[in-house]
Amino acid sequence: MLALHDGLVLGVLLLNFFVLGTSRLSSGIRSTALQGAALAALPAVLHPVWSFHKVLLVVGTLAVKSFLIPTFLLRAIREASIRREVEPHIGFVGSLLLGALAVAVAFTVARRLPVAGSEAELLVAAAIATVTIGLLVIVTRRKAINQVIGYVLLENGIYLYGLTQSDRVPFLVELGVLLDVFVGVFVMGIVLFHINREFDSLDSARLVHLRER
Amino acid sequence: MIVLLLLAAPTAAGVLALAAPRFGARAGTVLGVSLLHLALVGALWAWPGQGALGAWISVDALGLLVLSLVSLTFAVVGCYVVGYLRYSPPSSGAGAARAPRGGRAFVGCLLLLLAAATLVCVSQHMALLWVGLEAVTLSVAPLIYHEQDRRSLEAVWKYLVLSSVGIALALLGTFFLATAQQAGTPLLFADLLRGARALHPGWLQAAFVFLLLGYGLKMGLAPLHTWKPDTYGEAPSLVGALMAADVTACAFLGLARITAVGMHAGIGPFMQPLLLGFALLSLAVAATFMLGQRDLKRLLAYSSVEHMGLLTLGLSVGGAGAYGAVYHLLNNGLAKAFAFLAVGNIVLATGTARLEGARALLRRVPFSAGLLLAGLLALTGSPPFGTFLSMLLIVRATWAGPFRWAALPVCALLAVLFVPLAARVLEAAYGEHPAAERHHEGPWLTVAPLALAGVLVALGLFLPVPLREQLAAAASTLGGQRP
Fold first, then answer.
1. Domain span holding position B387
2. How far from the centroid of its chain's Cα atoms is residue A96's Cα?
3. Bond from prior residue into B142 cis (ω within 30 degrees of 0)
């Protein structure tokens, strides 16, 4: 019988593949929203001891990761009227395969790392895989929005790793993660609107005026 | 108390500038706050015991040195901002020149940058240091986008994407560091040093790699430097001065802290080759890309890549190299700041930093051109500037250190690096240009950078005893010693 937290971690892992495989930007954003909800539930499920700090963490994560940022990104693609990723640098099938490879490597690495218990091992493996897939999305996709989605995946992976340390590392770091995602995407979003106005498209491949000639 | 004021004054003024631009968003605010900041840092030098605010926030030798650099350059930029915002381009002559804009975002973000950089310098907790660097990144972004045109948009986009990835990797490294630590308050620098031998070596190595990537990206070490020329090239020159002097110094502080922990934990043989690799690659990349460079600001950006490489070289060879690195951090910061401000005056007068337009400068803006020539001498490590001594220390420590062979390529690359920088700056100063009229250079725009150059010469001629003691203390934290 699969424990609830293992199910949640596996859900997070699978949602990465959904982002990798879809060309529809809105589906990608919704996957990150769902992923955020799973991440918000995890601290409560892993250590079911309630405190003010824990409630704040769960509510804060839920609000930022699965509501604020996705809403913001969805608004950005609506206003820029773009729906699909066209011609990523590595095709969807190829990036799915690379993602699978990342997961395999992550599990091998996590088994060798000195972490306590299979529960933490799964968390660490999922964290490494999510970080890697996030980087993959940032590098291989052309649309600026997709790079932001990749960055959100990267942050989610770091959050996942932070959960293994949450009983030792204080509060501040968790807030830092939230703040980071929020502010990072917020600032990026503002820039996106300007990119849209200036370049008539959200294609980061057109940002090529500054290069060495 | 002093530290609390150091943090609170720029934060409050920055928030005021953003919230109530009628009162706060003036050049005088930047000048006043940065002078207050400088006075407070002076007080910290006079009464060294006053620099603590609990275990998380206190000033040690490394932090104090970086803080002094930040404070000094900000005071100078504070003076410069007054002249910069008052500047009105001559109605005739170069049509490309535009009047500089101020505004609440400009003034507010400058002040918040000062607050964030101060936080980085005084934090003794690796997570707090990370938060500070994050705040530095975010407060710099609007300043880069100050011109609000296509090119600055592209620059700020590259900067944000790359540095937010870097900052994310650094956070992951910080988490790994927490995992490596089993005893003491998590991530407290003093406890990390004290219990360094008990840290788990595998996790510590992982932490070092990620922090090196994250903070190295913020420093602009090759091959993570690609944002640097674009960002420095498009940002207003005074922002370039602050980035090249202070933002890089803050990132170096992060890298220095994790290196110190690693040296005390005995993973030096793992770290040193990595640091050396980044250092040599930075020097080589700077030498390659400087050759064809026709833009003064981008030239300075590659020079910054070079000097970040030298700092990393000092860290990697240890011994007197660590002393040289901290000393060079101050010298390079001062040299970059006044060179960028000189280029800023040139851009104000000619409308461009590209060599096609910015030539014959000794005739058109003689004072700033003189400063730029001084900057050339300082950045290539000529006496009597302090950079001469610190670069010499680093090269000598390389020869004496574990990688004796590296001294040869380093010397060769430094010699190669001299050529393009000298050729371009001399072309800018003496080259031919049809425009003949001489531009007025106001005192606000010239006296402050000149003062910085004076400080740099003073550092090359004479090191006061307190400064020498702090340098030695910082070097011993890094596992080195005084030469």
1. 2-477
2. 16
3. no
Is B145's Cβ below 8 Å from some Cβ in A? yes
Residue B171 has its nearest CB partner, among A114, A151, A158, at A158
Q: What does the DSSP assignment read for A72-111?
A: HHHHHHHHHT--B--S-SS-HHHHHHHHHHHHHHHHHHHH
Q: Which of A144, A158, A183 faces B172 most closely, judged by CB atoms? A: A158
| B161: chain A residues, CB-CB within 8 Å | 138, 147, 151, 188
Q: How far apart, in whole angstroms, are the C-alpha atoms of residue B329 and residue B8?
A: 26
SS3 content of chain A, % helix, strand, coil (to 5): 80, 0, 20
* Residue B354 near residue B295, CB atoms below 8 Å: yes
Contacts with A172 from chain B: Cβ below 8 Å = 127-128, 131
Domain contains B483: no
pLDDT digits (tens, 9 = 90+) for A30-88: 999 999 899 888 888 877 777 787 788 888 888 888 888 888 888 777 776 677 777 77
**pTM for the structure as a whole:** 0.92
Domain membership flag for residue B435: yes
Please state, in angstroms and rounded to a whole number, the distance separating the CA atoms of residues B474 and B472. 5
Q: Is residue B364 part of a domain?
A: yes
Chain B CA closest to residue A206: B154
Best probe of the B interface among A173, A183, A208, by most B CBs < 10 A, is A173
Total domains in the fold of chain B: 1
Smallest CA–CA distance, residue B255 to chain A, in Å, is 19
Inside any domain, residue B482: no
